[in-house]
Amino acid sequence: MAVAGHADFSDLRHIKRQLLSVAERSRERGLQHSGKWASELAFALEPLLLSELPPPPALTEEDARDLDAYTLAKSYFDLKEYDRAAYFLRGCKSQKAYFLYMYSRYLSGEKKKDDETVDSLGPLEKGQVKNEALRELRVELSKKHKAQELDGFGLYLYGVVLRKLDLAKEAIDVFVEATHVLPLHWGAWLELCNLITDKEMLKFLSLPDTWMKEFFLAHIYTELQLIEEALQKYQSLIDAGFSKSTYIISQIAVAYHNIRDIDKALSIFNELRKQDPYRIENMDTFSNLLYVRSMKPELSYLAHNLCEIDKYRVETCCVIGNYYSLRSQHEKAALYFQRALKLNPRYLGAWTLMGHEYMEMKNTSAAIQAYRHAIEVNKRDYRA
């Protein structure tokens, strides 16, 4: 069994148990992306026997008291009725219900902010539209933090609130703390990735010594365009037993895309499509490669295929936009990139691609505005 870095991958069955457990805990708190990441990684490992499955999380007295309110609120939360969920969770004391209460309030603010951004999808100056809930959430979470009453998920949410308030330094400290308290929660590692701007910053982070750190380092190396180091990390993770992970395969494809090794990236994306044919994530990156190679029939097929799966996903809109752009129908392309941004105003790729379309249409001021947005979303975006 190979070892990635210094992390211990000798007991993959134990790692699988950990992943299944944190996937369930993430889903209970409405953290779908973290739950999905852990589930996908667990799926890449061999199945467990009944006797090996992780036990359900132990319930406290507070959990039992809050169970009715939590169960009701979670059903509203899943239907995106965030204010309604928060209303029924007021006064809940258990960690899980309290997290869902605070997270519902946070998402309610985000949804209102996004709706306002969409309503004014013209040139938006930074900070014009704010999540009004953030300041209150910061005050409340900060009190809990000082009293050391936040668990790993609570620390993660506190970090997100600080980052949204542009308090990057404080946010980094809180996310690092979250990775120590709950190393298995991918969301906290991912947020940390968004705040690390260079290798120097990375050196000074005191991170927990856990196998999750290897996934984090591979991801951050890709983000910082340290592609050789990233590919080495991903290869050692594959050797350690994660060869079937579609997450790792997609990350390797993105890494090759970033260093412009187009043939290699295309062949890996084609392989990924065979393994996970209904996958939409990263397909906009795949379409960029097809665009660069002027592969019209393949790009047309991809656009039609994604449209059949889910036409209202940002990635689908970007793929269709690329398709029209390749056919020099720039107004139509810009329309689809705008549609992508209506679905998610923080989607980096769409801002960059829209900037390119405006340049094609000789609308320089709109292009500059779009590139500005892209850099606002991710200061490391080399394309913008």
UniProtKB/TrEMBL annotation:
Keywords: Cell cycle, Cell division, Mitosis, Repeat, TPR repeat, Ubl conjugation pathway
TPR repeats: 314-347, 348-381
SUPFAM superfamilies for the chain: TPR-like
GO cellular component: anaphase-promoting complex
The keyword Kinase is annotated on this UniProt entry: no
Keyword Repeat among record annotations: yes
Domain of life: Eukaryota
Biological process (GO), any one: positive regulation of mitotic metaphase/anaphase transition
Residue intervals of the Cdc23 domain: 15-253
PANTHER family: CELL DIVISION CYCLE 16,23,27, CELL DIVISION CYCLE PROTEIN 23 HOMOLOG
Protein's UniProt name: Cdc23 domain-containing protein
Lineage, highest ranks first: Eukaryota, Metazoa, Chordata, Craniata, Vertebrata
